[in-house]
Specification:
The protein has 124 residues and is an all-beta fold. Helix content is 0%, strand content 49%. The chain is built from no helices and 11 strands. The strands form 2 sheets. Strands 2, 4, 5, 6, 9, 10 and 11 form a 7-stranded mixed β-sheet that branches. A 4-stranded antiparallel β-sheet has the order 1-3-8-7, with no helix packed on it. A hairpin with a 6-residue loop joins strand 5 and strand 6 (58-60).
């Protein structure tokens, strides 16, 4: 079992950058694929990016491809999301999630553990 805890959210101007981090407790972090999702007010939670257990595979939503980069450090039990060229439409609560799968997925029901989320606000 792992418990993700996000950090690094905040307020940034359009075109700026933020780096989100997710620290996951537990001794079996490398057994989990990890993902980032986001949810804007009044909208469904949506997939942002995911990474396989040993970081050999990553997937991104089309809306963030080329701007966001997901990475992980299994020695430190952390996964990060580097967000560049931020846009106002990136404003949302960002969630880190862990999945007991080899291949990461883009569906929320594929993930077993979720963090509480961190707010990202991009001003125009």
């Amino acid at each position: 079992q792992v418990q993700p805890v996000e950090s690094g959210g905040g307020l940034v101007q359009a075109g700026g950058s933020l780096r989100l981090s997710c620290a996951a407790s537990g001794r079996t972090f490398s057994n989990y694929a990890m993902g980032w999702f986001r949810q804007a007010p009044g909208k469904e939670r949506e997939f942002v990016a995911c990474i396989s257990r040993v970081a050999t595979t990553t997937y991104y939503a089309d809306s963030v491809k080329g701007r966001f980069t997901i990475s992980r450090d299994n020695a430190k039990n952390t996964v990060s999301l580097q967000m560049n060229s931020l846009k106002p439409e990136d404003t949302a609560v960002y969630y880190c999630a862990a999945a007991r799968t080899v291949v990461p997925g883009a569906k929320t029901d594929q993930y077993d553990y979720w963090g509480q989320g961190t707010q990202v606000t991009v001003s125009s």
